[in-house]
Specification:
The protein is α+β, with helices and mostly antiparallel strands and 189 residues long. It has 3 helices and 5 strands, in the order βββββααα. The protein has a 5-stranded antiparallel beta sheet with strand order 1-2-5-4-3. The chain is flat. It starts with 15 loop residues before the first strand and ends with a helix.
Amino acid sequence: MPDTDNSNTGKADAGSTDTSNTDAGSTDTSNTDTSRRSRIEAKKVYLKDASFESPSSPQIFAQGEIQPELDVQMTMTHLKIENDQNYYEVVLATTVTAKHGEHTMFLAEIQQAGIFEITYIKEEDIELVLETACPHILLPFARESLASLVSRGGFPQLLISPVNFQALYNQKKAKEARSVQPPEPSQLN
């Protein structure tokens, strides 16, 4: 899928990750041939869907400054784009619900998406990249989209904490491994 926007052609841009670097936190997945370095590049970042509801307004605004209870939920989906072996869409869906007692102050939902070109990465590592590196690139955009929605709804600034996608991926894999383990002999009786 060719990139029609040539404004983002730099080799070390914010939406690109070169995994051949051996700095802290990265592994060398490159071959000795420097033309085959593993690479993750954000080709397009876009807001796929957004929704904001404030069911308790305008009454909630008459109560002055309120510290709401926040519930933040994130899910992620990814798919390979048809007819293009190196391009994937990753969607980071985030829902923020703010409550004060029984009353919902606001509900903000966004789907921040990106199209990523992933080259020279082993097939068994693609899922890891799609669920760690790609959402890491999307998170700042999702945070900004949510903060904008919430402030336009008349509420104070919303700050979403950083997310360790590697830890979430490791937890997911550990849970999957536990679910496929055969039961212990003592559990069969």
